[in-house]
């Protein structure tokens, strides 16, 4: 089956890997990106719209694809203003899901975070939880919400405390077994592969944590 895809957050750590996987995958004939900056490479299947992703409603006529992937997210350090933080981490995914439902998308995949809880007293966890809740209410046949623990990979911007945590998680991943597997760090490449796996092969979902992300990535590698 020939499919089309939309990616939000294509220039980020996970988004870039996802776009590369989509471009390699023969199932997809077109990959559309909505972002503020160019992806940085060209491909016959690649279509780019340079837009303000906080104003996705303005792109509703072009926001059409079989599969929609949302890899957008910020951090408390990068976006200390809570109003702007919510516009990014809640507003963009929910608007994308709304447009995806309106335009007949078959699958919507979004990256959330471990600890997401709409009833949490912690603003950041509550924002993610509210986003998940409102995305799930949209009329899309298949919705998958990824809740990774720490995402590891080579970022352009260096986050000191995150780098320290990455090294710590590498040391402790091997002792996180059984029910603790969900706390394991997960590579950005594995998230991208797992997103591809659920979009192309049925999965019960909708919530997918770090341990399942790694399992799904391995399945995608086996099929590749």
Automatic annotation (TrEMBL):
Residues annotated as domain NAD(P)-binding: 9-122
InterPro entries given in the database record: NAD(P)-bd_dom, NAD(P)-bd_dom_sf
Name of one Pfam family that matches: NAD_binding_10
Superkingdom: Bacteria
Name used for this protein in its record: NAD(P)H-binding protein
